[in-house]
Amino acid sequence: MGKKKYKALLEDENVRRWYVNVSRGAEVTADVNLKRLSNFCERVGLNPKDLLKMDDKALKNLILDYITDMELKGYAGSYIYLTIKAIESWLSFNNRELRAHLFSVQLAVSPIKFKFIIT
């Protein structure tokens, strides 16, 4: 995905606020999170605002289906995990709480499992 494509998300005021807020910690993190949010939205055919409007069950299922799809395509567990962390950051910034059961992503390079709850 070209830089222009994910930078286009910054035209949305709320996405821009989130990006600027994350960049206060580290601009590189903000850039990576923006790219991951953009890639996720493109893959699932939604925009960031659509994620905020989804009910808990639909959002949880969307994320779980995304994880399964990415695992089947051979993406590294760390890539999947960090993409979900970017989505989690976006949701949290918008006071969007998703109550979901614990699930894990297996890292290909390590037997360690990351476990997290989308909140």
Features:
119 residues; mainly alpha; two-stranded antiparallel ribbon; 6 helices; 2 strands; 62% helix; globular
Specify the overall morphology.
globular
Q: Helix count, per DSSP?
A: 6
- End-to-end CA span: 28 Å
**Largest sheet data:** 2 strands, antiparallel
Could you spell the SSE succession in H and E letters?
Answer: HHHHHHEE
Number of domains: 1
Low-confidence stretches: 107-114
Counting DSSP E segments of at least 2 residues, the number of strands comes to 2
Q: Largest sheet, order of strands side by side?
A: 1-2
Provide the helix percentage.
55-70%
Strand content: 5-15%
SS-based class: mainly alpha
Protein name: Core-binding (CB) domain-containing protein
Organism: Archaeoglobus sulfaticallidus PM70-1
How would you characterize the overall build of this protein?
The chain is mainly α. It has one domain (3-116). The chain has helices at residues 3-7, 13-23, 27-44, 48-53, 56-72, 77-93, and strands at residues 103-106, 113-116. The chain has a two-stranded antiparallel sheet. The chain is globular and about 35 Å long.
Please specify the SSE layout and strand pairing.
Layout: H1 3-7, H2 13-23, H3 27-44, H4 48-53, H5 56-72, H6 77-93, E1 103-106, E2 113-116
Antiparallel strand pairs: 1-2
Task: Give a short summary of the structure.
The chain is built from 6 helices and 2 strands. With 119 residues, the protein is mostly helical.
